[in-house]
Specification:
- Helix 1 links the parallel strand 1 and strand 2.
- The protein has a single domain, classed as Glutaredoxin.
- The chain has a four-stranded mixed beta sheet, sandwiched between helices.
- It contains nine helices and four strands; from the N terminus they run E-H-E-H-H-H-H-H-H-H-E-E-H.
- This is DSBA-like thioredoxin domain-containing protein.
- InterPro entries: Thioredoxin-like_sf.
Length: 210
C-alpha cells in the first residue's frame, strides 16, 4: 500500500494530523508513505502582526481540542518581525529526503513541526533548520552534519526540488492541508481532506480496498 500525504510543516492541522498518520502507519506496516510538501505560505513576505497571531491562536486552539497536541502560545505571541514563510521548512524536509532518502520521512516532518509549535524555534532560519534536521537524522540512525545539511539546503537544486513539490501538490488538486491519497495502479485516490483520526482513515482505506 502506497500513501501520499500533501502537507506543510507550518500548517497547524497538519501538525495535529501527524500523530494520527504515525498511528495509521504503525497499524499498517505494509504501507509506505510519500510526503509532498505543500508550500502553504511559500514566499510570504508580510510580517505577522497581532491580528495574524490571534488568527493562528484561534486555529491552534481548535487543533489542540480535537487532536490533543500541545502548542507553545507564548512562543508565537513573543515573536517580533516574524515572516510566516513556510518555504524554508518545506525545503528542509526536502533536504533530509535528498541526503537520506531511506530515513523515516514522517518522523523528520514531525520533528520540524515540534520545533515550530512546541520549541518555538524560528523555522524560517536555515541554521536552525540545519540543527534540527541533522539532529533528527542522527537520532534516526542516519547521521548528517549540520554543515552538510545547511549546504544542501541552500543549493539551487534543493530550492527547485521544493518548488516541484509545491507544483505537484497543486497538480494533485490539493486545496487544503493535510490531504491524504492512496496510490493504486498509478492512480491517486483521495482518502480524506483535513484532520481525521486514524480509525476513520482505516475505515476509508478498507472501503477503498473493497
Amino acid at each position: 500500500m502506497e500513501l501520499v500525504l500533501a502537507a506543510d510543516p507550518m500548517c497547524s492541522w497538519c501538525y495535529g494530523f501527524g500523530k494520527e498518520m504515525e498511528l495509521l502507519l504503525q497499524r499498517r506496516p505494509d504501507a509506505s508513505l510519500r510526503i509532498v510538501l505543500g508550500g502553504l505560505r511559500a514566499g510570504a513576505t508580510d510580517v505577522l502582526d497581532d491580528a495574524g497571531k490571534q488568527f493562528r491562536l484561534h486555529h491552534w486552539a481548535m487543533v489542540e481540542e480535537v487532536s490533543g497536541v500541545p502548542f507553545n502560545r507564548e512562543g508565537l505571541l513573543s515573536r517580533s518581525g516574524f515572516v510566516y514563510d513556510t518555504e524554508p521548512v518545506c525545503r528542509a524536509v526536502v533536504t533530509a529526503r535528498i541526503l537520506r532518502p531511506e530515513a523515516n520521512i514522517l518522523k523528520i516532518f514531525r520533528a520540524f513541526q515540534h520545533a515550530f509549535y512546541v520549541d518555538a524555534l524560528d523555522t524560517t532560519d536555515g541554521v536552525v533548520l540545519a540543527e534540527v534536521g541533522s539532529r533528527t537524522l542522527s537520532e534516526l540512525g542516519h547521521p548528517v552534519s549540520a554543515e552538510l545539511f545547511l549546504e544542501t539546503w541552500t543549493k539551487q537544486s534543493t530550492l527547485e526540488e521544493a518548488a516541484t513539490d509545491f507544483a505537484v501538490a497543486r497538480a494533485m488538486g490539493v486545496t487544503s492541508f493535510p490531504t491524504l491519497f492512496l496510490k493504486q495502479g498509478g492512480t491517486l485516490r483521495r482518502v480524506g481532506d483535513g484532520y481525521a483520526p486514524a480509525d476513520e482513515l482505516e475505515m476509508h482505506l478498507a472501503s477503498m480496498a473493497a
